[in-house]
From TrEMBL:
One of its GO terms (molecular function) is kinase activity. SUPFAM superfamilies: NAD kinase/diacylglycerol kinase-like. It comes from Xiamenia xianingshaonis. The keyword Transmembrane helix does not apply. NCBIfam families: YegS/Rv2252/BmrU family lipid kinase (TIGR00147). Belongs to the diacylglycerol/lipid kinase family. Keywords: ATP-binding, Kinase, Lipid biosynthesis, Lipid metabolism, Nucleotide-binding, Phospholipid biosynthesis, Phospholipid metabolism, Transferase. Residues 3-137 form the DAGKc domain. One of its GO terms (biological process) is phospholipid biosynthetic process. The keyword Lipid biosynthesis applies. This is Diacylglycerol kinase family lipid kinase.
């Protein structure tokens, strides 16, 4: 079987999903070695947080970078690849073995690793847009406030309990909803228009539709439409109403609520009066001032389809 992959590097995060990912590396490597031309495939394990950025940025003579891990390792590899000139940017492929795997879901990669490898081997590269917030790139999600607090809380909770996925996000979600329903004052300028002041409980800027282990916060977000979809939940929202909206968001049914504002943008400037909890692709982000811009069709990914159900 021939693929269009060329020289292929697998970057594997052995600590993803509380270390369960480590046991998958040999399985994936064995499977792919058997299907790719001799000497065209090698594996590198990450040794520390941030390592995948360096590996992806510095890989020489590589045409395709595959990652094995969660949204964090996808985020890091994408940042490494985006630091390279566009004409020397390998294609990205994802084998999901993380806890949330929102990006893999958005590009239609199955979560079972053998199926993921078969799917990747059968598909051609497709271009996706990449977002940038200050000096960081992101492929799926950027959010501030309650939902970011939930995403960050899941990391702590997962280490304690070993739980993962939607169940974990639900557990963190209800805890944050009951105890940290905070409001953040913001000033927002969309596409160089007028600056508008507002208050938010959650503020999401999505490239793809998912965050938080499959919550469809912006159901219409498309990875290849050259624009961000925004979802802003405005106060006042009581605890019961917030819990209801949270459950609705699992299937993207929250968007018609009167407290929820949906927007589209290709660039935005966002200032908060105090530092909110913030995440991008599930990784913590710090600060109060955020410039967000779009890089249309900047990265090629191995994807059978976009925005899988
Ligand atoms: N060898 C390593 N040692 C410690 N941390 C690492 C190592 N390699 C990567 N990391 C860090 O692990 C974190 C989590 O990685 P990843 O997202 O792949 O798994 P996950 O958290 O289980 O999945 P998800 O993000 O989908 O919930 C990232 O912040 C990454 O920087």
């Amino acid at each position: 079987m021939t693929t269009s992959w060329g020289n292929t590097l697998l970057i594997a995060n052995p600590v993803a999903q509380n270390g369960r990912s480590a046991s998958l590396v040999d399985r994936v490597a064995g499977l792919l070695r058997g299907r790719l031309p001799r000497d065209s495939f090698r594996v590198e394990l990450t040794k520390r947080a941030g390592h995948a950025v360096d590996i992806a940025r510095e890989a020489q003579g590589v045409d395709t970078v595959l990652v094995l891990g969660g949204d964090g390792i996808v985020h890091e590899a994408a940042n490494g690849l985006m630091a390279r000139p566009a004409d020397d940017r390998p294609v990205l492929g994802v084998i999901a073995s993380g806890s949330g795997n929102d990006f893999a879901k958005a590009i239609g990669i199955p979560f079972e690793v053998e199926q993921a490898c078969e799917t990747l081997l059968a598909c051609e590269p497709r271009s996706i847009d990449v977002g940038q917030v200050n000096d960081r790139f992101f492929v799926e999600t950027l959010s501030f406030g309650l939902d970011a607090a939930i995403a960050l809380d899941t990391v702590v909770r997962r280490k304690k309990t070993g739980r993962t996925g939607t169940a974990l996000y639900m557990e963190s979600g209800f805890d944050q909803l009951l105890h940290h329903l905070d409001t953040f004052d913001y000033a927002l300028r969309v596409d160089n228009g007028e600056t508008k002041l507002g208050q938010s409980i959650t503020f999401a800027v999505q490239n793809g539709p998912y965050y938080g282990g499959g919550f469809k916060v912006c159901p219409d977000a498309q990875l290849d439409d050259g624009a961000f979809d925004l979802c802003i939940a405005h106060p006042p929202i009581g605890v019961l109403r917030a819990c209801w909206l949270f459950l609705q968001a699992k299937d993207g049914r929250h968007t018609k609520s009167r407290q929820v504002e949906m927007l589209r943008a290709t660039s935005l400037h966002l200032e908060f009066s105090e530092e909110p909890p913030a995440q991008t692709d599930g990784e913590r982000l710090r600060g109060t001032s955020f410039d967000v811009r779009m890089h249309p069709s900047a990265l090629r990914v191995l994807a059978p389809r976009f925005n899988a159900e």
